[in-house]
User: Which sequence fits this backbone?
C-alpha cells in the first residue's frame, strides 16, 4: 500500500519536476553561465565588477520598490479589511473590480497614465480650464512610484483579503468580549493573524516593483532609470548578454536579501512563512 | 434578577428570528436555552453578549438598559462552540488576554492565570501552543480565559458540541461544579435535551423564535406545555383526547382517570403518556390493548412500538415481548399529562415512522 502510493506520487510528480528543471533550474544556470563569462565564452569576473557602476540604479530600484510596497500596504490593508466585512455578494463584485485592471495589458495601463499625467494631459487640461496653474506630474519620481503602485496594488489586496476573509469571526468576537475595543482588536488580534497575508503581499509587490521596466521609461521620462530598464537595454540594444545576466543575478540576490530581512521582522511578530 | 429580556424581536433579511422573547434570569442561576437549530437560542445569547442588537425590545442588566453597550463594556463573557482561542498566543497569554487589557500588574495577572488554569485542570500547560491541545483542552482554556476576567454572567454557546460523548459527559459535570463553586450565572445554549435536564436549574425551551416553556427540568419533563415540548424533551406518546370532566379523560377509545382539571367539559386536548410510564400486562387485564410491531433491546429496557387502533405507541418495559404479541396496557392516573391544544398538536408523538436511524440522522444533522 505504502509502496503503491509513493510510486504513484513519483509518477505524478515527474512532469512538475521536469518542468522545474527545464524552465527554472536550467535558465538560472544559463543566466549564471552568461554572468561569469565574456562574449567569447571564457570565464571572467569583469561583468560582476562592472556592476558597481550601476550601484545608483540598483539602490534607486530598491528604494522605489520599497516606497511603492509601503504605499500599497497602507492602501490595501484597510481596504482588504473593509472588503472582508461586507456581504458575500459585495465581496465578489469588489474583488472582481480590484482584478479588472489586471486583465488589461500592462503596457497599455502604464501608457494611459502617461496621457493622464502629461503636461497637456487630462489632469492639467482640467486644471487650466479651472483657471489653475498646471502641475508638473509626468517625469517625476512620484509618477514612477504611482505607476508601480497602480500596477501592483491588486497583488497586495488579494493575499490580504484572502487571509482576512478566512479569519474566524468568533476569534474577533472573543477579543471584543474580553474587553478589547476596536483598536485593541485590530492591533492584538487581526494584525498578528493577518501577518502571513502581509508577508506574501509584500513579496508579491516588492519583487516585481524592484525589477520592473517600462514604467520609469514612460512615466519618469528616462530620468529615473531602474535596473529593469538597464537589463532590458543590455539585451535589446547593447546586445551585452553577459552584463545583462550579471545584473539579473545581482538583482536576484538583492531581492532575496531584502525578503529575508523583511521575513525576519515578520517572524518576530509571529507568522512569517514565505520567502 | 441579573438579566431581563423584555419583548426582544430580531429580524434578519425580513425573516423574523426572535418574535418577542421575555425572559428574566436570577443571579447565580444555571439557565439553559434548549431548542432545535434555528430556534433562536444562539441569537438570544448573542443579544445578551452584545454581538447583536435587537430590532426592538430592551436588554436589562441589573435593571439598567444595556442596548447599544458594546460587548467589551459588558460584564458578560462568552464561551464559543469552536473555542475561538487566539492561535498566535500560547495558553498562558490566551488566559491573560483580558487581564492585560485591564492593565493589571504582572504579578496579579500571573496569579489569576495560574488560579484559572488549575480551576480547569490545566496546570502546567501555560507554555503550550493552543493548536497542540485536544478539543477538550482547548475548551478548558477558553473557559479559563473567560472566567479570568471575572464576569458576572458566563454565556456558553453549545460549548461541548464539538466533543465526543464521553468527554462531553465529563465536561458537563465539571462545568456544573465550576458554576456552583464560583456562584456566577451561567446561560447555556444546547440542542441536547439530556444535557439541559442534567445541568440546569432552569430550562428555557425555544422553537421558531418563541419561548415554548420555562421551568425546572422536572417541570419541563413532567408537565410539558405543548406537543413540541413533550416531543423535544424525552420520548412521548401524544394522543388526541377529550376531557370528559375534571379528572377524567378519554383517548384511544377508553376513559382514563387522570390528575388534571380545569378544562371545559368535552374540550379536546393533547394527552401525553411517557413510554416508561405504561405498564404492560396480559390482554385481558389491560385497559387498552395492541400488537407489538417491533422490539429493540436498549440495555436497561426493551423499547417496543405497539400498534393500538392504528396509532403507534412507544413503550419501554423491562420484560421482553416479541413482535406480533398481543399485549394489554395499564396507564395509572399520574402517568397521564393533559395539555391544551396548540399549533403543534398533531405534529408530534406518533411513532409510525419511527426508527432509530432517522433519530440519529436528525440529531447528527443538528450538530453540524
Assistant:
Amino acid at each position: 500500500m505504502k509502496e503503491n502510493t509513493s510510486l504513484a506520487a513519483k509518477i505524478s510528480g515527474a512532469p512538475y519536476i521536469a518542468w522545474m528543471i527545464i524552465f527554472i533550474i536550467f535558465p538560472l544556470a544559463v543566466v549564471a553561465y552568461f554572468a561569469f563569462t565574456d562574449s567569447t565564452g571564457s570565464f571572467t569576473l569583469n561583468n560582476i565588477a562592472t556592476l558597481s557602476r550601476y550601484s545608483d540604479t540598483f539602490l534607486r530600484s530598491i528604494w522605489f520598490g520599497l516606497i511603492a510596497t509601503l504605499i500599497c500596504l497602507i492602501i490595501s490593508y484597510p481596504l482588504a479589511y473593509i472588503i472582508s466585512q461586507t456581504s458575500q455578494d459585495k465581496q465578489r463584485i469588489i474583488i472582481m473590480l480590484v482584478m479588472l485592471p489586471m486583465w488589461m495589458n500592462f503596457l497599455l495601463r502604464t501608457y494611459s497614465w502617461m496621457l493622464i499625467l502629461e503636461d497637456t494631459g487630462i489632469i492639467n487640461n482640467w486644471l487650466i480650464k479651472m483657471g489653475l496653474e498646471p502641475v508638473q506630474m509626468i517625469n517625476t519620481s512620484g509618477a514612477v512610484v504611482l505607476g508601480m503602485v497602480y500596477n501592483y496594488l491588486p497583488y497586495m489586496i488579494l493575499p490580504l483579503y484572502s487571509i482576512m476573509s478566512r479569519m474566524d469571526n468568533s476569534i474577533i468576537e472573543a477579543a471584543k468580549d474580553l474587553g478589547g475595543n476596536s483598536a485593541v482588536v485590530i492591533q492584538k488580534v487581526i494584525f498578528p493573524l493577518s501577518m502571513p497575508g502581509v508577508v506574501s503581499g509584500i513579496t508579491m509587490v516588492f519583487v516585481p516593483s524592484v525589477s520592473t521596466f517600462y514604467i520609469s521609461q514612460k512615466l519618469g521620462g528616462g530620468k529615473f532609470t531602474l535596473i529593469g530598464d538597464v537589463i532590458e537595454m543590455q539585451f535589446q540594444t547593447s546586445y551585452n548578454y553577459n552584463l545583462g545576466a550579471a545584473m539579473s543575478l545581482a538583482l536576484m540576490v538583492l531581492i532575496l536579501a531584502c525578503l529575508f530581512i523583511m521575513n525576519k521582522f515578520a517572524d518576530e511578530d509571529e507568522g512569517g512563512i514565505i520567502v | 434578577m441579573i438579566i431581563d429580556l423584555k419583548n426582544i424581536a430580531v429580524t434578519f433579511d425580513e425573516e423574523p428570528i426572535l418574535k418577542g422573547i421575555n425572559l428574566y434570569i436570577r443571579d447565580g442561576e444555571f439557565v439553559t436555552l434548549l431548542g432545535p437549530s434555528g430556534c433562536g437560542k444562539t441569537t438570544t445569547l448573542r443579544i445578551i453578549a452584545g454581538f447583536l442588537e435587537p430590532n426592538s425590545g430592551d436588554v436589562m442588566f441589573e435593571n439598567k438598559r444595556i442596548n447599544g453597550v458594546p460587548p467589551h463594556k459588558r460584564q458578560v463573557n462568552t464561551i464559543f462552540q469552536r473555542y475561538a482561542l487566539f492561535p498566535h498566543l500560547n495558553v498562558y497569554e490566551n488566559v491573560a488576554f483580558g487581564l492585560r487589557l485591564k492593565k493589571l500588574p504582572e504579578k496579579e495577572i500571573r496569579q489569576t492565570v495560574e488560579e484559572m488554569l488549575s480551576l480547569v485542570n490545566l496546570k502546567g500547560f501555560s507554555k503550550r501552543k493552543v493548536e497542540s491541545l485536544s478539543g477538550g483542552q482547548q475548551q478548558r482554556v477558553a473557559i479559563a480565559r473567560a472566567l479570568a476576567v471575572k464576569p458576572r454572567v458566563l454565556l456558553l454557546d453549545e460549548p461541548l458540541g464539538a466533543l465526543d460523548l464521553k468527554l462531553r459527559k465529563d465536561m458537563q459535570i465539571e462545568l456544573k461544579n465550576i458554576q456552583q463553586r464560583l456562584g456566577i450565572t451561567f446561560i447555556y445554549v444546547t440542542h441536547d435535551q439530556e444535557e439541559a435536564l442534567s445541568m440546569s436549574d432552569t430550562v428555557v425551551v425555544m422553537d421558531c423564535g418563541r419561548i415554548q416553556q420555562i421551568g425546572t427540568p422536572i417541570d419541563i419533563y413532567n408537565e410539558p406545555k405543548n406537543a413540541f415540548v413533550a416531543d423535544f424533551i424525552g420520548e412521548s406518546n401524544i394522543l388526541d383526547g377529550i376531557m370528559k370532566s375534571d379528572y377524567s379523560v378519554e383517548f384511544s377509545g377508553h376513559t382514563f382517570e387522570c390528575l388534571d382539571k380545569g378544562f371545559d367539559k368535552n374540550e379536546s386536548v393533547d394527552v401525553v403518556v411517557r413510554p416508561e410510564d405504561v405498564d404492560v400486562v396480559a390482554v385481558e387485564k389491560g385497559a387498552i390493548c395492541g400488537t407489538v410491531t417491533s422490539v429493540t433491546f436498549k440495555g436497561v429496557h426493551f423499547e417496543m412500538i405497539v400498534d393500538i387502533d392504528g396509532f403507534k405507541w412507544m413503550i419501554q418495559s423491562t420484560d421482553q415481548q416479541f413482535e406480533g404479541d398481543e399485549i394489554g396496557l395499564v396507564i395509572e392516573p399520574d402517568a397521564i399529562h393533559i395539555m391544551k391544544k396548540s399549533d403543534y398538536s398533531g405534529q408530534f408523538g406518533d411513532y409510525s415512522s419511527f426508527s432509530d436511524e432517522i433519530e440519529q440522522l436528525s440529531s447528527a444533522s443538528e450538530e453540524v
In short: The domain at 227-367 of chain B is CATH 2.40.50.140 (OB fold (Dihydrolipoamide Acetyltransferase, E2P)). Residues 165-182 of chain B form the longest helix (18 residues).
